[in-house]
Amino acid sequence: MNSHALIDELKTLLEPGKVLTDAASLDTYGKDWTKQYAPAPSAIAFPKTTEQVQAIVRWANQRQVALVPSGGRTGLSAAAVAANGEVVVSFDYMNKVLDFNATDRTVVCQPGVITKQLQNLAEENGLYYPVDFASSGSSQIGGNIGTNAGGIKVIRYGMTRNWVAGLKVVTGQGDLLELNKDLVKNATGYDLRQLFIGAEGTLGFIVEATMRLDRAPKNLTAMVLGTADFDAIMPVLHAFQGKLDLTAFEFFSDKALAKVLGRGDVPAPFETACPFYALLEFEATTDDIADTALATFEHCVEQGWVLDGVMSQSEQQLRNLWKLREYISETISHWVPYKNDISVTISKVPAFLREIDAIVSERYPAFDVLWYGHIGDGNLHLNILKPEHMDKDAFFAECALVNTEVFETVRKYNGSISAEHGVGMVKRDYLQYSRSPVEIQYMKAMKAVFDPNGVMNPGKIFSI
Ligand code: MLT
Ligand code: ZN
User: Fold this and answer.
1) Between 403-412 and 349-363, two packed helices, what is the crossing angle to 10 degrees?
2) How far is the CA of 339 from the centre of ligand 1 (A)?
3) What is the CATH number of domain 336-447?
4) N or C end of the chain, less CB within 10 A?
5) Mean pLDDT of 155-183
6) Share of the chain above pLDDT 70, in %
7) Topology of 220-332 in CATH?
8) What is this structure's pTM?
């Protein structure tokens, strides 16, 4: 069957107008936020129901057509990129909140619900959906689950996985599985729900998710502290963690801060220039807690770890301090950064960062290297910026040369080559630095069970 006939057949499975093949749609829906790959899907399908998703998957099996799931397309590992003539399955029209249960504190969402929409719904009901990151205004719940999204509050609330009470998925064979039925306790064998979280759509597509909510935090208060050097950040973390229940502990380098301040729409936290900055957050529910935070700050200054600092006194100031961290990724996207998203256990962070920084500075003295990330949970983002004049492909090729060295170091520290951005195509060829050969064999065997014909997002996580 030729490709026109295939697309005509696909159209019969969906409502009229819900399969697009125009150039602009192929370009938009064929990619995520990664910039290494040119989008080249053959069509974009927009199912509205679970039955339509099942019909698409069954058709794909019958016709050997590769499918790529697509959410808010904010991913950074090319897990949602269709670069090889695949059919993209967009969940834009499966975007409804189906139920809210105040007693269970759960929300039943279709996969296309935007993260912010869920956060707002929680807030309107006096509750809180705690997984948060800069792209929450466009990322979708299905994508968050598919990548087990992390973000800025992991130190307190964990990753998306912690908040998934139940899932409905269409497997690669077109079967509908109802996983965990939203139960808190359910000791009935394998928890298949967990397999689909972070699977990047390689085992099946999420068609419904029940998300848990938490109590709303009270009087969130942020501090930005300028540290004397990188080595001071971890003692600062320990000092504050010993005294306060932190909701966030982020860090960024002076170079990252300079890029954000260069936008001109975010105020500097204070005048003192420091090589590194920590942003921490806690619930200042009593005056005592705020006093403890200030006393801990003073202790850190006395120790010589902290050079200057500021504590938010209003919602507006809290928001402005967060912008210093949250705007980094979008701001530096202008320089087409080569991104790394690596993690180690928290105790290993200082030695690990020093080693990686030495490798990168030695190999790339001419490139701008920026550090930022979720240091409180051991997740560091290393970004190398492309010089304006340099060709994009040449730049990525040059950066890739150092991957082996960086990932060898990750392996040495028992770390992860992808803490929260996923594997997709970007990290696929490096999976063996985080997973053993025998573990990868088991993963592939699992893929073969759920997707025997290899139609579900092939070429992501591993090259099948
Ligand atoms: C972040 O922490 O800002 C996000 O993971 C995005 C990025 O790393 O650029
Ligand atoms: Zn991050």
Assistant:
1) 160
2) 9
3) 3.30.70.2740
4) N
5) 98
6) 100
7) Alpha-Beta Plaits (3.30.70)
8) 0.97
